[in-house]
Specification:
Layout lengths: L3 H14 L3 H13 L4 H10 L1 H4 L1 H20 L19 H13 L10 H4 L1 H15 L7 H14 L4 H13 L4 H14 L2 H15 L1
Helix pairs in contact: 1-2, 1-9, 2-5, 3-5, 6-8, 9-10, 10-12, 11-12
Length: 209
């Protein structure tokens, strides 16, 4: 139910988020051999800083650099892939980001600000203008692929079940089916670990029941 590229995205995202560089390295090799371009993997690692922080994102980027050096030394020529289209200089990031979040959440319209949005308005600005505009507007990955990256990372971290539930819904709003999300849980179980799969499975069950 998930193609080989989609399956390869999952362990790359998980091992970046949990900081396991030893397991990330072979996952990166598999990703390239599964059809992910160099720039697609770079984009995954860059996006993940918004979820697991600069340190782990940068560690993963350094690990990817090592993988590329190893492959180049062996004469392996990987597909570099396309570069991101430059964003318009006059782009209204607040409006664009709000629209992306609205589509991912499945809202008919943006609801009134509440909770953390009122308590700390700047974080809502960052979410809209940076995560859902600066990052999500980059067309190296689709919104569907970005949501797969996101749910993979959230499944790898402790205490993020609420965010995981939201983003599983967002993944379905980008076109994933419930069956594909159960396939995602299965990939976690086989390629990552039973703990991560169990948490993701429990969240998915609540979401789809």
């Amino acid at each position: 139910m998930l193609d080989t590229k989609q399956q390869a995205i999952i362990p790359i995202s998980v091992f970046t988020a949990n900081g396991d560089m030893e397991k990330l390295k072979p996952a990166l090799h598999i990703g390239l051999e599964s059809g992910l371009s160099v720039n697609e993997i770079k984009e995954i690692l860059v996006q993940l800083y918004a979820y697991c922080g600069f340190p782990r994102s940068l560690n993963a980027i350094h690990t990817f650099m090592e993988v590329m050096q190893e492959r180049e030394a062996k004469g392996i020529k990987d597909n570099v892939g396309k570069e991101a289209t430059p964003l318009p200089k006059d782009m209204d990031k607040d409006t664009y980001g709000a629209k992306v979040r609205q589509l991912l959440a499945g809202w008919d319209k943006e609801p009134p600000a509440q909770g953390y949005q009122l308590f700390t308005p700047v974080i809502d600005t960052y979410l809209k203008e940076h995560l859902f505009a600066d990052i999500f507007a980059r067309d190296v990955l689709t919104h569907q692929e970005r949501e797969l990256v996101t749910i993979s990372a959230l499944a790898a971290m402790n205490g993020t079940e609420g965010q995981l539930q939201f983003h599983m819904g967002a993944a379905m709003n980008t076109g994933f089916t419930a069956s594909q999300l159960y396939a995602f849980v299965n990939v976690l179980d086989v390629k990552v670990g039973h703990k991560e799969a169990k948490v993701a499975g429990q969240v998915l069950k609540r979401f789809t029941s």
